[in-house]
Amino acid sequence: MAAPPPALSWALPLLAALAGAAGPQSFELPGAPIDNIEVSGGAVLVAGGSCLYELRPELRPRRRVVPAAGQGCGEPPGMRSNLLLHYEEAGGVGVLLTGWTQDGGACQVWEQPSYRQRLNQSEVVSCLPDGSTAGVVFQQAGAWYLAVAATYSTSADTNHLHCEPSKSDKETVITVRSMVNLKSKEELGIIKRREEPLHFVDALQWGDHLFFPYYTLKARLANNTEPPSMAVLRQLGPSDGGLTLQGHVYLDCGCRSLIISSSLVRQGERGWWVGVFRHSHNAKAWNSTAVCIFGMEEMKERTSSCPSPLTLHFSIVHCKRGLAQVSEVNNDTIIHLRSFDNMGIIQLHMGIHKETSPEGLCLVAVRFLMVTFKFPVYGGCINSMCYCILWFQVRRIPVANCGRFASEQECLSAKDPYCGWCSFNQRCTLKENCTHSNSINGWYNISHAPDKDLKILLSFPAKYQVCTPSFMCVCLFIQSIEPLWISTLGKSEITVKGENFTRASGIKLILTGITGCKPDVIKVRNVLNDTQMTFALPPTRKEAKSICIQANGKKCSPPMTLHYVSLPSCSRITPNTSWISGGRKITTTGRNFNVVDSVIISDDQRSNLTVKGKVVDMMLRVDTTFIPCVKLHYHPDPVFINYQLHTELDPDLELKIYKENDNLNISKTEVEVYLLYMTGAQTKKIWFSVQNITKKPDRSTILCKFKREGTDKIDFSTVKVFVKLGNFEHEVKPTSSHIYLYVLILLPIVVAAFIVTRYKSKELTRKQSQQLELLEYEIRKEIREGFAELQMDELDVVDSFGTVPFLDYKHFALRTFFPESGGFASIFSEEMPQSRDQTSKDESFNMLHALICNKNFLVTLIHTLEKQKNFSVKDRCLFASFLTIALQTKLVYLTHILEVLTRDLMEQSSNVQPKLLLRRTESVVEKLLTNWMSVCLSGFLRETIGEPFYLLVTTLNQRINKGPVDAITCKALYTLNEDWLLWQVSEFKTVTLNIIFEKIPENESGDASQTIQVNVLDCDTIGQAKEKSLQAFFNKNGFLYGLQLDEIGLELVSEEQQRELLDIDGSSEVMDDGIRKLNTIGHYEPSRTHKLVAVCFINGSLLCCLDVDYSDEHCHLILPDSEANKDVKGAGHKGKQKFKVKEMYLTKLLSTKVAIHAVVEKLFRSIWSLPNNKAPVAIKYFFDFLDAQAESKKITDPDVVHIWKTNSLPLRFWVNILKNPQFVFDIKKTSHIDGCLSVIAQAFMDAFSLAEQTLGKEAPTNKLLYAKDIPLYKKEVKAYYKAIRDLPPLTTAEVEEFLAQESKKHENEFNEKVALFEIYKYIVKYYDEIISKLERERGFEEVQKQLQQVKALFDEKKKCKWH
C-alpha cells in the first residue's frame, strides 16, 4: 500500500543546471503563476491560473483541463491551486486530486488519462489565499480515503472573504473523507482544535499511521518560541474504520519555530523524517535555517496527548531560507537543499552505516550543484531529467553531468549516485545512457563498490550543528563561551555560562578541528556555581574548531566556533612618546589583539628620567606569556610658559597659552584647558575649547576660546588657568600678575605712540624705499634664474617607462565614438555572448540589417533624418556611431556610404564656401568620417604613434612634478599653460628622504623591506611625497608597490620618536581667517638621521591634487587673499616683504617648453612622416579621393584641397587624440595635463594652417611659445602632403583587401544587435517622414514593404515585453 507523493507546493529543487547541456527546455504559463507541479506516470502535471496542464517529458503540452465549467483559464482572477495529489487504484487506474481556493475550497477528482471528472466537492481544502492544505490518500479495508489538514479559518473576520468552508465548526483542522464523495464524517475522523489556528506543512503515511507536521500561525511572530509539532493519527481496526488522534510530539530543531519543508526518507523497514526549520526572527543570520532528521519509529512511539520532546538524530545548519526534497537513487537517499545564495543546490547523500550510526542513517557525502536561476520549486524527475517551477515557468534540467568525469577513477571517486562507469562505452554516464545497463557488469557506481559504507565526506562550505532537545528535565543550557578567540598557546581558563551546571555530571568539553582529526575531550576544570564553569584549553595549530559541551552522557550542546590564531604582534604605535606623568592615549596597530589579556609597560626607570628621556618596553601578556610589542619614549612633562587672556570681546573670551617646544607632538584633542575664578566665596570653572596649536621656532601657542552665557561678571583678578594632559595637570601663570606692571607697560606704549606720530612720514618713506628695493631685487633674481635655467636645465627623461598601457581596440573605439556619452559606451562594453545563434535567428534584426545594407535606402534614410528640425547635432553624431558599430564588419560597404555622403556634402557647400568643408561636426557624414579614421588608423596609432605619445605624457607629468605644485588648485611652477602657472611660490629646496618600503602580502614580486632614496621638495604635501615615493619604487623595481596612494602612510622614525605624517593634523597652521594650511615635508623638519617608513593603512589625508574644491577650508602654496599682504620672510631678507608679479615667472613656461621640446618634435614627426616611404592605406585612399573630387569639380586652388585634407585628418582625428591620451592609454588625464596638451595641440594645428601668423607683444603665451617653430613645421607638413600625393595610387583591390582585413579583426568586438536597435529607435521616431519620402521616390516600393515588415516584427516584440 504505497502512499502517493506529498503535495509539492512547499517542495524545493532537485536541480543541477550543468555544463554540457543544450539548455533547459521550458513551458510558460503567461499571466498567472504556477502553483503546483507533480511528476507521475511519465507526465508532468502543472496547476495554475485556474487550469490544469499535462505536459510531455520534453515539456510540450499534451492536454489542458479547465476545472470550472463555463470559465476559461485565469478566471476568476486570484484563484490558486493548493493541492495536487496523484495515486493509482487497482488495475493501475490513475487518479488525480486537485484543490482550489474557489467555491469555499473545492476539490476535484479526475480519472487519468481521459481526465473525466468523477467528483467536484466544495469545502474540502482551504479557501484562504495564504491558507495551508496538506493531504494524503491511503487505503483501508479495500477502500480509499483522503486525510486532509487545512487552515480553514484564521480569525473571526473571514466572512468578508466569502470563505467559510467549515460552517458547522470553525475549529476543524483535520478531516478524513471517503474518495467516493469527499464528504467528512464524524465516524471517519474529524480532528478539532480550540486554540489559535495552525499552518500544516505536509501529510505523510508511515505504516498504519498518518503524520501531519505543523506550527502555529503565531509562531511567525518574532517573539514566539513555541516549537513546531507533529500530529500523529492512527488507523483504527478494519471493523472500526476511520482514524483517531494518537497525539503530538514536539519537533525541536535548535529552538527554530517554523517548518519550511518536509520529506520522508525510506530505507527498507526504516524511515526518517527530514524537516527544514527556520527561526521566526533574524532570518538573515547565518544559522537561521537548519535541516533536522528524526526517526519515524521513535516519533510514533513518543506520541502522546501532551507533547514531549523527540530525540534528534542530527541536524545541519543551513544559512538560507530553503526547502528540501528527498529522492531515492540506487538504494541510497538524496536530500536536496537550496544553497546559501539561492543559486545552487546542496545535495546530501544519505546511506546505511550500522557501525558508525546506531540509528542506521548516516551522511555519506555533500555536494554542491550550480543552477542558473534563483528560487526554483522542485517537482520530480523522469529518467535523467528533473522538473521545477519558477514563477510562470516549468523548466527541464538534467539531473547530473556525468561527462565531466574523464576516467573511471574520477567517476567512482566522485561518489555521485546518479553517475557510474559504463564499461561498454568506456565513459562516465547515467545508467539509462549505458548500453546493456541492466547487466551489473556493464554499469556500476558507488552502490556496487565494495566500500559502500563510506565515512562522512564534507565538501562544501557549510557549518554544522548537533542539537540537544531543550525539553529534558535536567538539561544543560549553554548561554556563552568566553573567549572564543585564543592564541595557539592555548588558554589556561575559559568561562562557560549557562544553567544547571551543578546538577549535571560528567561534564566535558568536546573540541573538534575542521580537518576531521580526532576530537579533544577536556574535563571541566572548576564548576563555580550553577551558571558558570571553567575549562583549560590545550595549545594547537592555527585553525577554527567546533566546541560543544556534553553532560550526563547525552548529546553535545549546539556547537560554537572557537578560533585558534597566531600570536599577537605590533606593527606601529601612535604616538610613540609620552610625558613622565603618563595618562596619554596610545593607539597600537597590529594583529590578533583580541587574544591579549593585558598590556604591560616596564617602568623601572621612570623615576630617574633625565631631560633626554628614557625608552621603555611595551609588552603584551597572552595567558602566561609576555610578547614584546614596541618601544615607548618617555619625555619630561611639557613646560607651559605663561598665558594671555583677551577680554575685550567679553562675553567671548580668547586664551593663548605659550608652551616650550618639545618632541611630544601634542595635538589639540589631548589638551584640556579650564579657568577658575571667584564669585564671592564660591569658585566657578570655565572649560575652554582648544582651537589649534601652532608651532614657531621659539615656542608653541595653544589658542583657546570660550563664549559665556548669562550675565555673570568675571573678576579677572581672581582668575587661575589650568592645563590638563592625561595625568599631568598644571597651573599656568599669566604674562604679568601685578597691577603696577600695567602702568610700566602702558608708559612705553604712550611714548612709542608719540614717536610713531612724530616720525610717521619718515617711516612711510623708508618703507616705500625698502619695498621698491625688494621688488627690484626679486625681478633681477627671477630673470637671472630664468636665464640660467634656460641655458643649463635639462630634464632627465625616463627612457624606459615599461610597457605602454594601451587600451584594447573596443575601449579605444568606444571612447572616440562616444566621447561624451558614457552610457552608450558602457552598454557596448559588455562582454559579447559566446554564441550568436540567438541573434542570427532573430528575424527582426536580420531584416533591419538587410535594410541598412541597402545603399540607396541608407543614404535616403540619413538625408531624411537630417532634414528633421529636432534631429540635433548630438543625434547625428550618435546615429553615425551606431551605424559604424552596426557595420563594423562591413567596412567596404561603410566606405562606399562615406564616399556617397561626402560627395553629397560637397554639393551642399560648393556654392557657399568650399574651404569650410569638413571643418565642423554638424552632419552624420562628418562624425562618420571621424569614426572611420579611428577604425582604420587604430593599428597605425598603436604601432607608430603610441610610444612617442605616451613618452610625451610621461615627460609632461615628470616636468610638472619637478617643481612646486599647489595641492588645492593643481597649479604648478613648471607648466606650458599660463592659466596653470603657479607664480605665488616662495623659495623651495630639494629634500632627500630615505623611504623604507615594508614587505606587503599584495606585492608578491617584492623582496623583504627595502630602502629607497626619494627626492621631494620641502614644500610638497605629505600626499605629494607619498606619490613621488610610489613612483620612485616603480622606477627602481619595475613593478608597483601593491598599495594605492590612500592605503599607505608615512612615519617619521628616529631614535627618540616615531611620528605619523599627515596632510592635516593637530599641528597644522591655522590662518587668522580659519583657513588651515596643509602640512608639508618642511613642516615636519626631517633630518638626515631620520628615516621614513611606508606603512600599510587607510587614512583620510588629502592627496596630491584634490578633485574636490577645498579652497574655502584649506590652502597649500597659494595663500588666501587675506594673507596676500602679510610678510613672507625669505632667506637673506628677514623682515622684508616679498612682492610677487605673475609676469616674473613666465620664463617657467619657456623653460618647460625647452625641456620637453625634443619629445614634442619626435611625436609631431612620427605623425607627418612616411616610414619606409609608405602612407597608411586609409590616409592615402582618402587624400586621393579628395584630390579626385577637387579635379572633378574643377577646383584649381591648391589651398582648398590642403584645407580639406587638414580638416579630414589632423583636425578631425589627430587633434582629438593629442588632447585625449585617455582614449589611447589606460591612464587618467588630469586637468593640468589637459591644459598643457591643449597648447601642444594648438601648435600642431598651426603647423597645418596656411595663414601667416602675426604675433605682437600682447599675443597669448600659448601662441608665443611655439612661434619660432611653426614656420619649420609648416614646411614639413607641405612636404608630407606632397609625398602622399606623389605615391602611386592604390588600386580598388588593395583598398578593399585592407578594409576586409580590418573588418575581420573586429569581429565579435561589439554587440551589433544593440546598435541596430538604437538605429531602429530613430527610424520609429521619424517613421512617417521616412515612409513619406520612400513613397515620393521611385524604385523604393519593395524597400517600403520591407521597412513596414520590420516595424511589424518589432511591434510584435514590444507586445511580448521584449526589451
Automatic annotation (TrEMBL):
GO molecular function: semaphorin receptor activity
A Pfam family reported for this protein in Swiss-Prot or TrEMBL: PSI
Cross-referenced InterPro entries: Ig-like_fold, IPT_dom, Plexin, Plexin_cytoplasmic_RasGAP_dom, Plexin_RBD, Plexin_repeat, PSI, Rho_GTPase_activation_prot
Main localisation: membrane
SUPFAM superfamilies, alphabetized: GTPase activation domain, GAP (SSF48350), Plexin repeat (SSF103575), Sema domain (SSF101912)
Leader peptide range in chain numbering: 1-21
Transmembrane feature ranges: 739-757, 877-898
Superkingdom of origin organism: Eukaryota
Subcellular location: Membrane
Swiss-Prot/TrEMBL keywords: Disulfide bond, Glycoprotein, Membrane, Signal, Transmembrane, Transmembrane helix
A GO BP entry: regulation of cell migration
Chain ranges of the PSI domain: 401-450
GO cellular component terms, A-Z: plasma membrane; semaphorin receptor complex
Name assigned to this protein: Plexin C1
